[in-house]
Amino acid sequence: MEADRNFTVLAVSDNYASSDILNSILSSYYNVKIAACAKDALALLKGAEVDLVILDYEYHSKEGHDFLMSIKSAEETLRIPVILIGDSSNPEYEELAFALGAADYISKPLRASIVKVRVNNQRLIVRQIKAIEELGLLDPLTGIANRRGFDSRINLEWLRAIRDKTHFSLAVADIDHFKAYNDDYGHIQGDVLLRAIAKQIVLMLKRPADFVARWGGEEFVIMLPNTNLRGAIMHSEEIRKSVEKMVVPNLPGATISIGVASTIPSSSTSMQGFFNMADKALYKAKHSGRNKVCHFS
After folding, report:
1. Which stretches within 34-170 are classed as H helix?
2. Is it the case that residue 149 has pLDDT exceeding 70?
3. Which of 2, 49, 218, 244 is an active site residue?
4. Euclidean distance between CA atoms 159 and 156, whole angstroms
């Protein structure tokens, strides 16, 4: 595994044995910081650039839950990936972890090979996000990834889902009646709306691997790795509701329609065919009343 001393991992655990194990596994490769409680961890997050958080708390720990929710609700930390460590005998914790915005989950007892692979996966995602920002793969109007940026990112995540045999979901969102909106309020105000909705979708993304790009015009595409159909529908519905409630100064409210598709891809699965499934679901949402989420079945 490649060493990356500029990549900072913050291990947060109230169990000193777990902290020692994580430090011994990772310190040869990364810059590792240790925090024994959530309060110390939050202080470290404010005072230093942290690329990844590993959180080891018991399932019923309110402190652990509150810590994860606090960093996923703050704009300056919400994009930091969090790997949650939990007991393998409690599978409900894994589902809760992803619902709270964790990027990955590792079961105890800790195995060095698994910890290294999972941490390196997140490192590669973080590095690719930074590369996209630096290589001009951003949409100049909204500041999010453009179509080229999306193509670059989905190829990586698609191959990872094939390798790990995990769910992969896609949502295609379209602003309702956008042409009429432009006609009534002008293209400058239309651009204001596009920027506002792009920012709102970004704020609603829970994990660093979750990804949104402007596909073109008034259409956005949202990639949700390691997310099954139920989770993708729920997340898309949250995004739809948040846009519906959004207030843009001097502009009327706007809504979006979303089409969702989900699969566990294999080497024989067509990525283009999968995208077409989400697009067909969007068509269904647009032609059955708009301002709704539909899925491909």
Report:
1. 38-47, 62-73, 91-99, 112-134, 147-164
2. yes
3. 218
4. 5
